[in-house]
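Take a record:
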Amino acid sequence: MRKLAFGLAVALACALALAGGARAEAVVDQTGEWRYRAVEGGAEIAGRVDSPAGDLEIPAELDGLPVVAIGDMAFKYSDKLRSIRLPEGVGRVGELAFVGCSGLVAAELPESLTELGGLVFEGCHRLASITLPSRLTEFGANPFVECGLLRLEVSPENPTLYLADGALFSESAKAILAFPSAYEGAYSIPEGVTDVWGYAFARCAGLTSVELPEGVTRIGDLAFSRCAALTAVALPDGLERIEFAAFRGCGGLASLSIPDSVTAIGRLAFEDCPELTLIVGKGSYAEGYAEENEVPYALAG
C-alpha cells in the first residue's frame, strides 16, 4: 500500500515538475535559510535550504516580499518536521506541499488561506488536528489521504465547508471532499451530494460498504482506490462518470452494478480488483467498456 502511495505521489510530482518547467528558478533569501520564488503579490516558499526539523514557523516576509504562498512539494518527505505554522498573508498551499511528512503532528493555517492543493498532507500519519479557516473554499484532490489520526475542524465562519461524521463537504460544490482514513464499517453519503471528489475515500482501509445517493453524477479520480475491506458499493441511477482508477485496488469487491446512465469510465477504473464482476445493462456503455478492457461482466437480470 505504501509503495503504491509513493508511486502516485511521485507520478503527480513529475507531472507538476513538467507543468512548472517555465517557472522562475527558486532563489535563496538573504538569511541563507529559505528558498523562494517571486510571484504575483509577493513570495512563494519553495522550501528550506537545510532539511527542516522540529517546529517550523514560516516567515511573513522574505527579502522585503510578503510571503503569499507555499509552493508545490515545498516540504515533501520532511520526516523530521514536527509542526508547521503559516503566517497571515499566505493564500495558497500547493500540491503535495507536506506529502510524506510522517513526523508532522500539528499544522496551523492562517485565516488568509483560500486554497489548499491536492494531497497536501498525504501520508502525514501522526497529524492530529487541523482547523480549516473561514476563507478557505478551493480544494484539490483530498489533501488528507492516509491521515489516520486527524481530527478536522472547520471555522464556523466558513461559508461553504462543513463536517458530518468526520467527513468534509463543500456545500457550494455539492461534493464530498475528504473522508476520515480511520473510519470502519458501512457509510451512506448524505443526500444533496452530487460529486465524489478525487481521492475522497482513498486508502480507507476499514470502509466495508458505501451507498451513493440519487443525484451523484460523478466519481472522481482514485476516489475509492485501495479500500481493501470494501465489499459493497451501491451506485445510483443518474450516475454519469466514473473517473480514472476510481476503484483501483479494491480487492474485496466481488460485484458492482453499473447504471445504464453511465456514459464515461476512466482508464484503470477497476484495475487490481481480481474478484470483481461488473453487472451491466445489455447494450450499455458499461458493457462496451467491460468488453474492451477485458473486465469480467454479467448482464443485469
